[in-house]
Amino acid sequence: MQVPQNAVLLRAFIGESDRHDGGPLYEQIVMKARAMHLAGATVLRGGMGFGHSSQVHTAKILRLSQDLPLVVEIVDREDAINAFLPVLDAMMPGGLITLEKVQVLQYGPGTIRQPARLT
């Protein structure tokens, strides 16, 4: 699979305890992204955070949270990400989704591309 140099980064900010179809939401998002042949997905666990409710979730020993913040990141062509958005929307009961344009310098083995000039 080839990812164009100018791509889109999707980030879904969710909680570790969020669920969909009987399983962890983050797993369901990654598996659906794979089924839709997106370039790849990564789940990052945060040590501390808060969201819409302003409730702080932390991994500190004295306040061990069962709902640590997670970020699912997916980078692909803009059209592939746009096709995934309605699917993601149907899966997420809440949370935050962001998109940003990114430059892909390397995907898989090979030579690192030269970055495009910023204007």
UniProtKB/TrEMBL annotation:
- InterPro entries linked: N-reg_PII-like_a/b (IPR011322), N-reg_PII/ATP_PRibTrfase_C (IPR015867), UPF0166 (IPR003793)
Q: Which domain of life is it from?
A: Bacteria
The organism's taxonomic lineage, starting at the top: Bacteria, Pseudomonadati, Pseudomonadota, Alphaproteobacteria, Rhodospirillales
This chain belongs to the protein called Uncharacterized protein
Sorted alphabetically, which PANTHER family does this protein's record hold? UPF0166 PROTEIN TM_0021
The record's section on SUPFAM superfamilies has: GlnB-like
State the similarity comment.
Belongs to the UPF0166 family.
